[in-house]
Amino acid sequence: MTMQENVPLAPLTTLRVGGAARYFAEIKREDEVREAAHFARDHTLPLFVLGGGSNLVIADSGWPGLALKIAIGGITTPKAKDAASNAVLFSVGAGVTWDDFVAQAVVHNCAGIECLSGIPGSVGGTPVQNVGAYGQEVSDTIESVRAFDLKQDRIVVLPRPACGFHYRSSIFNSSERGRYIILRVNYRLKRAGMPNLKYADLQKHFADRLSAPGGAKTKPTLAETREAVLAIRRAKGMLILPAHGDRDDADSRSVGSFFKNPVLGAEQFSELAARADSKGLEIPSYPALATQRKVSAAWLVEHSGFSKGYSAAGPAGISHKHALALVNRGDAKATDILALKNEIQLRVQEAWGILLEPEPVFVGF
After folding, report:
1. Euclidean distance between CA atoms 272 and 274, whole angstroms
2. Active site annotation includes 168
3. Are residues 9 and 84 in the same domain?
4. What are the tens digits of pLDDT across the range 307-348?
5. Which residues constitute the domain of residue 310?
6. What is the pLDDT of residues 203-227, one digit of tens each?
7. Element (H, E) at 229
8. How many domains are contained in the chain?
9. Do 48 and 146 sit in the same domain of this protein?
10. Which of 54, 257, 285, 304 is the catalytic position?
11. Parallel, antiparallel, or unpaired: how do β-strands 361-363 and 56-58 relate?
12. What pTM did the predictor assign?
């Protein structure tokens, strides 16, 4: 393991803001994780794990401890787990780029994550947030997570139930935040499975084929579904991978969706619907759980006075393509991004009585 000092972190993130790490190491082997953990412990340094850098806002002051970039690679050749159900297990290194894994799964004609195409970041970050989009979540397919347990100083394997998955959350970002460093993730996919087309934009994209009469009706393949998701994300400015589009485009310098869609109980949703009705508006929502409704955070933002392309006083703004993407227009600081975040949260709360919860992780604040 090579330990570096005073390494700038902004270039390693999609938002491109923030200062330097006091110490920095790139980890490519599992045994190096224990070495790095012991270094941080012995020097009384706070430890921060960096994956693909796609869901982070790093403070302008940087990180005063050790930043670990997990670069453990490798995607196993698919092996059938259950011939009767066509289940296939993939074991994927935490440092693998998430979209590279999705692409390989689709090439192998394995269903379960095709609608998660185009999401930036690395595989190791997907269990932390229970990453989801377009009708799928990684918790639908995760079989287990292999991680280094800082508390027990050893490698452990956590089966899916132990990960405590909920909407955009897990034990890794809630009850056990900071305890585990994810090394590999095992996914259970379905060979020759049908693509998930529950999401409205996908149904619209394939409307002609899905509604064609009789024998003219053809179902999209997994590969076609992946390409459709990429096209939809590109149109919304949510395709910020280096392999897609121009990383120098300001609308690509973001963390993707900055706020979570609020999940409301029946009473709170009723109050929100009444507010909307008093303004002659109907708020879009869809079921989350048996007694809850999920509300569009983008709709709340746009109906609180923030339009796509909104610019704050400084170099931070809102994407021209999606109301939930806060962007760095060139030389924004972390404080500029936070000021815009706070302004949006305040006005949404004043207008709708809801405090939007941020999606990204805030480091060094």
Report:
1. 5
2. yes
3. no
4. 999 987 789 999 999 999 999 998 999 999 999 999 999 999
5. 251-363
6. 989 988 877 666 556 789 999 999 9
7. helix 222-235
8. 3
9. no
10. 257
11. parallel
12. 0.87
